[in-house]
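Worked Example 4.2. Consider the chain below.
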Amino acid sequence: QVQLVESGGALVQPGGSLRLSCAASGFTFSSATMRWDRRAPGKDREFVADISTGGGLTAYADAVKGRFAISRDNAKRMVFLQMNNLKPEATALYYCNTRSGPYDYWGQGTQVTVSS
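Applying the procedure from the previous section yields the following structure tokens:
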């Protein structure tokens, strides 16, 4: 079955950086678009970034453009989110996502807290 396991979340000061990782299994990773979403306290889950199967195409939410970078390693079945110049509004539970057939899958999430 599809499994997505996120890691790398932490408490970081404003202006700091973090790199999130997502380990994937149970599907053909190299054929899957991968995405990062997040859910901030009291808000709905929202799109952060996605990456095409080969990694050549990426897209970002306006709020993170220029500061976040999504990447993937198909050989290791991993997807990453490099987050720089973090702001307090980036505080959220970050989820890795993929779609397999008609279904969307998310991992359990990794908590990012940006606070001084």
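The chain is about 0% helix and 55% strand. The longest strand covers residues 92-100. Compare this with Example 4.1 before moving on.
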